[in-house]
């Protein structure tokens, strides 16, 4: 015989059960039939139900009391399970009388159930569940389990009774069998963790303190039961939502064209062949378009894509469990409905919690999630900002991993133009290109800038102000022009080098598609970076310019990681990488004092050797470069200070006038000096005063000599004083 329960342990709910008595009586009958050998369970269940139903079913009250083991005990006197001589005593009589009374009560229950009206809400829910069960391909027992679990939660009293049963039963199979009325053996296989009800995310369960089982029904399914949806399409859309679409175009991801084409073929072949475990990880900084790329890939593969776990049934933030339930249902129901599509799981790190200092034991089973990744039936895009947020076991199970980084300036300009045009913001010709180059921000930030400009009734100036603020808030430094003297049209003849730059540019442009590297060295302002950008333009490549400070990290290994990422990004975007201040990263290893100084040089040397595209490094201190680095450059070009003829050409180029004779006395000028003086002269109104221009050029030269520790130039100073005293100084023709 089973254990007896103290009636004080049973929570007696309010008598609202009479509003839905049919389900309660059905459950009681199941207990009597299935568990007549457990008087303890009968005692607790019947006593509770007797009190709940006593008002509506006074005629049943006597029969309920008759099978209560305590009533039988009162008839027989003190209970004695086992006497001293080993005989069963009156306990056997108790059991016999108890069992004899149950069949009569079952007959009475059958009669009462037959004439008890089923509430309309119960009939409606049963019909809706029948249609849903057909779509989900549930068998009769699975449908009945689901139906009675749903009905057990209709009305507070019914839910309380369900809660009491959970306290009294041993495991989810026994509880489910009591609720649905099917034999325990048939129910067990259908409430296993790997059964269809749980695998599809329709049900989940939790074993609480004391072994109490709590079933949880999918929130989307619960919400669906409130609506009378007739068609399969309506039901599936209610479960999964409508397919999501993107407003972006393939050209917006031209920098990822090779990966984009491969992923489209992967999706098409995976769906056509019914491949399992197809998972695509898209990662990168926020706002780069990862989610939109997933939508675009699905569209190009001619497949609908469904975003799962974005909100709960009430439109609120979903829990981890609700997100996984939504994912499971899509994975298991869509193939069963003979539909094809993709799954989009954004912010996937929410469910793949990795151990951390503040969360050493994250919730959820790693094994369970790994199994999901290994056997999912619908190709799934997992979107994260940082792949390290996923456990390594999850990353190893990805079919394809793609870093979605900031698009090149040309693509950002095209996106900005389209966003502005769609918002009705007029931009002058070339404005989008200029803003995109100056502010290397993501497409999402560009959209925010356009919105700010429109809401402030501003134009291009308001847009630039908004982008400047957004970039500053994100810690992004606006890009200046490549070389200060790039403000005016670049003229290759204004540089003095040991190589014919014009012929060099023509040669490399003719050999487009060939990988090469350049080391451009010389003092600051001689035009190294602007020439590298000119070469990139001749090759038809977008420029990505980095300084050493962009790559140097504060922690061990951070610099090496940034170097790898920079070269990988340039390779993916097919851009021309210009690395300024290369001496900070390629310093002679024989002079290194720390191990990390050697490792960062090694990392950069490896990246230079393996990079498949042209790139350039610039430095003012070529003598400090590691000898191995110098050997790896295809070309090494020295940029010198200007000679007299080139300085005179620079004067004409920047000031649109003939240079004074005294300009020849200024030995050591560089193109950047002319650019800076022009900017200063524009502000001061001296563009038409050649002597003032000459004096300012001399000042720049003296400042550079003083910074370099050289003696002052008395001869030059004397000539400049003479020039200032002669308003109409003779000019060079």
Structure description:
This protein has 733 residues and is an alpha/beta fold. The protein folds into five domains: 120-224; 241-352 and 364-403, P-loop containing nucleotide triphosphate hydrolases (Rossmann fold), CATH 3.40.50.300; 409-474; 492-639, 3-Layer(aba) Sandwich (Rossmann fold); 644-707.
Helix and strand arrangement:
Elements: H1 21-34, H2 39-53, H3 58-67, H4 69-76, H5 90-114, H6 120-136, H7 140-151, H8 156-168, H9 172-180, H10 184-188, H11 196-199, E1 203-207, E2 213-217, H12 219-224, H13 232-240, H14 257-273, E3 279-283, H15 290-300, E4 305-307, H16 320-336, E5 342-345, H17 366-375, E6 380-384, H18 392-395, E7 400-403, H19 409-423, H20 431-438, H21 443-455, H22 460-473, E8 496-497, H23 501-510, E9 517-522, H24 528-539, E10 543-546, H25 548-551, H26 558-573, E11 576-579, H27 595-610, E12 615-619, H28 627-632, E13 635-640, H29 644-655, H30 671-684, H31 690-707, H32 714-725
Parallel strand pairs: 3-6, 3-7, 4-5, 5-6, 9-12, 9-13, 10-11, 11-12
Antiparallel strand pairs: 1-2, 8-13
Helix pairs in contact: 1-2, 1-5, 1-9, 2-3, 2-8, 3-5, 4-5, 6-7, 7-9, 19-20, 19-21, 21-22, 23-24, 26-27, 29-30, 30-31, 31-32
């Amino acid at each position: 015989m089973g254990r007896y329960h103290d009636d004080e342990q049973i929570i007696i709910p309010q008598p609202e059960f009479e509003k839905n008595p049919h389900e309660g009586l059905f459950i009681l009958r199941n207990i009597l039939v299935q568990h007549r050998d457990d008087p303890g369970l009968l005692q607790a269940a019947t006593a509770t139900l007797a009190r709940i139903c006593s008002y509506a079913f006074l005629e049943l009250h006597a029969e309920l009391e008759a099978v209560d083991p305590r009533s039988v005990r009162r008839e027989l006197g003190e209970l004695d399970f086992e006497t001293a001589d080993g005989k069963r005593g009156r306990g056997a009589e108790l059991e016999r009388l108890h069992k004899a009374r149950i069949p009569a009560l079952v007959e009475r229950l059958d009669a009462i159930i037959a004439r008890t009206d089923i509430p309309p809400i119960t009939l409606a829910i049963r019909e809706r569940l029948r249609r849903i069960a057909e779509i989900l391909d549930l068998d009769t027992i699975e449908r009945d389990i689901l139906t009675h679990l749903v009905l057990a939660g209709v009305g507070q009293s019914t839910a309380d009774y369900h809660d009491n049963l959970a306290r009294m039963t041993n495991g989810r199979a026994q509880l489910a069998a009591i609720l649905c009325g099917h034999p325990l053996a048939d129910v067990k296989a259908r409430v296993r963790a790997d059964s269809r009800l749980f695998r599809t995310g329709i049900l989940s369960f939790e074993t609480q303190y004391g072994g109490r089982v709590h079933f949880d029904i999918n929130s989307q399914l619960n919400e669906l039961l409130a609506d009378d949806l007739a068609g399969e399409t309506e039901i599936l859309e209610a479960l999964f939502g409508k397919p999501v679409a993107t407003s972006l175009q393939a050209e917006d991801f031209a920098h990822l064209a090779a990966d984009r084409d491969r992923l489209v073929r992967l999706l098409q072949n995976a769906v056509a062949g019914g491949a399992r475990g197809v998972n695509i990880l898209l990662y990168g900084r926020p706002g780069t378009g990862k989610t939109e790329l997933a939508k675009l890939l699905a569209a190009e593969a001619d497949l609908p894509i469904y975003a799962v776990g974005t909100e709960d049934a009430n439109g609120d933030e979903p829990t981890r469990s609700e997100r996984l339930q939504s994912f499971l249902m899509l994975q298991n129901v869509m193939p069963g409905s003979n539909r094809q599509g993709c799954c989009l799981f954004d912010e996937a790190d929410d469910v793949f919690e990795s151990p951390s200092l503040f969360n050493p034991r994250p919730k959820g089973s790693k094994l369970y999630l790994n199994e999901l990744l290994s056997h999912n039936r619908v190709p799934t895009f997992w979107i994260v900002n940082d792949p390290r947020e996923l456990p390594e076991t999850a990353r190893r199970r990805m079919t394809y991993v793609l870093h979605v980084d900031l698009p090149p300036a040309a693509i950002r300009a095209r996106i900005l133009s389209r966003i502005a045009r769609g918002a009705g913001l007029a931009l002058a010709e070339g404005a989008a290109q200029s803003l995109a180059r100056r502010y290397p921000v993501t497409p999402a930030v560009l959209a925010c800038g356009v919105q700010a400009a429109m809401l402030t009734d501003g134009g291009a100036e308001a847009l630039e102000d908004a982008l400047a603020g957004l970039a500053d808030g994100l810690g992004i430094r606006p890009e200046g022009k490549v070389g200060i003297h790039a403000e005016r049209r670049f003229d290759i003849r204004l540089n003095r080098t040991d190589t014919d730059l014009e012929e060099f540019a023509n040669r490399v442009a003719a050999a487009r598609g060939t990988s090469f590297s350049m080391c451009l060295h010389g003092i600051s302002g001689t035009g190294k970076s602007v020439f590298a950008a000119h070469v990139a333009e001749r090759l038809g490549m977008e420029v990505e310019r980095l300084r050493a400070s962009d790559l140097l990290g504060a922690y061990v290994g951070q610099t090496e990681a940034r170097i790898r990422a920079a070269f990988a990004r340039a390779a993916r975007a097919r851009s021309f990488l210009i690395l300024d201040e290369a001496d900070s990263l390629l310093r002679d290893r024989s002079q290194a004092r720390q191990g990390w100084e050697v490792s960062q040089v090694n990392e950069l040397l490896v990246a230079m050797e393996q990079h498949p595209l042209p790139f350039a490094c610039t430095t003012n201190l070529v003598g400090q470069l590691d000898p191995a680095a110098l050997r790896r450059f295809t070309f090494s070009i020295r940029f010198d200070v200007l000679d007299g003829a080139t300085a005179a050409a620079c004067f004409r180029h920047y000031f649109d006038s003939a240079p004074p004779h005294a300009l020849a006395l200024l030995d050591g000028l560089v193109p950047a000096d002319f650019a800076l003086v022009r900017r200063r002269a524009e502000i001061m109104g001296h563009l038409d005063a050649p002597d003032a221009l000459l004096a300012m050029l001399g000042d720049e030269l003296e400042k550079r000599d003083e910074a370099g520790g050289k003696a002052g130039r008395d001869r030059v100073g004397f000539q400049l004083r003479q020039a200032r005293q002669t308003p109409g100084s003779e000019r060079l023709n």
